[in-house]
Write a structure and sequence with these properties.
Layout (H helix, E strand, L loop, with lengths): L15 H6 L10 H17 L1 E3 L5 E3 L2 H19 L1 H17 L4 H4 L9 H10 L6 E2 L11 E2 L1
Antiparallel strand pairs: 1-2, 3-4
Length: 148
């Protein structure tokens, strides 16, 4: 499973998550949508106690690593999209950090892809990381969120 070179952990079709779990955050760069989606997978990793490194190896997910990865999304958003978007990302990150779940106001932004997407979404809802409503992007329904 491990591949040579540095992998993006959560984002992209060649990320560590894609190779190991067949689910990933689509897109390039970090904006509010991608940051919320990555935060969702970070919460999943924290709840199960392990994650992946940049070589695709399984490693422990500690509180410290969770916080470092979560708050690293802010400088990435600043770099990729500027101050206004980065401030929105920062507000979301603080809400996620304090509540240890994705607040309903941000849940509609969660966007995951891959063949195990539905399985992961069910797991996230069961663990109460996501509200019991399927975010609209996850199932391609742009009109409204649907109850699972």
């Amino acid at each position: 499973m491990a591949r040579k070179g540095r992998l993006n952990i959560y984002q992209g079709q060649m990320s560590a998550y894609t190779l190991a779990e067949k689910v990933y955050v689509p897109g390039e760069g970090v904006n509010l949508e991608t940051a919320t989606s990555i935060a969702t997978l970070l919460l999943r990793d924290l709840s199960r106690g392990w994650t992946y490194d940049h070589e695709g190896r399984k490693i422990p997910m500690t509180e410290r690593l969770f916080a470092r990865r979560l708050f690293y999304l802010y400088p990435l958003a600043l770099k990729h999209y500027g101050k206004e978007e980065a401030q929105k990302v920062k507000d979301m990150l603080l809400a996620v950090f304090t509540s240890r779940k994705i607040p309903p106001i941000y849940a509609r932004l969660v966007n995951l892809e891959g063949e195990n997407k539905d399985k992961v979404i069910r797991e996230l809802m069961t663990k109460r990381i996501l509200p019991m409503v399927v975010p609209q992007n996850v199932r391609g329904n742009k009109a409204k969120a649907t109850v699972w």
